[in-house]
């Protein structure tokens, strides 16, 4: 299981804005390319572990600042689905 966690975290830590928009559409999360770029910039190189509650909370708070609480809530639901 740790192997899959590492792959998911690696993908999140190196994601691009275009990829975020694509995944957002897949999961009905509205995010503009500008917002996605800001989120990707925040995530890139931070070595965030979405399986860690503190790291995930920090990311969700930053997403809420950039995209609003509704989008952050949807992203959090997606992260929770991925981590279970």
Keywords:
single chain; 84 residues; mainly alpha; 5 helices; 75% helix; DUF2624 domain-containing protein; DUF2624
Quick rundown:
This protein is an all-alpha fold and 84 residues long.
List the helices and strands and how they pair.
Elements lengths: L1 H12 L3 H10 L6 H11 L9 H15 L1 H15 L1
Organism: Caldifermentibacillus hisashii
InterPro entries: DUF2624
Protein name: DUF2624 domain-containing protein
Verbal overview:
This protein is mostly helical and 84 residues long. It has one domain (2-83). The protein has helices spanning 2-13, 17-26, 33-43, 53-67, 69-83. Helix 3 packs antiparallel against helix 4 (53-67) and helix 4 runs antiparallel to helix 5. The mean pLDDT is 87. InterPro entries: DUF2624. Pfam families: DUF2624. It comes from Caldifermentibacillus hisashii. This is DUF2624 domain-containing protein.
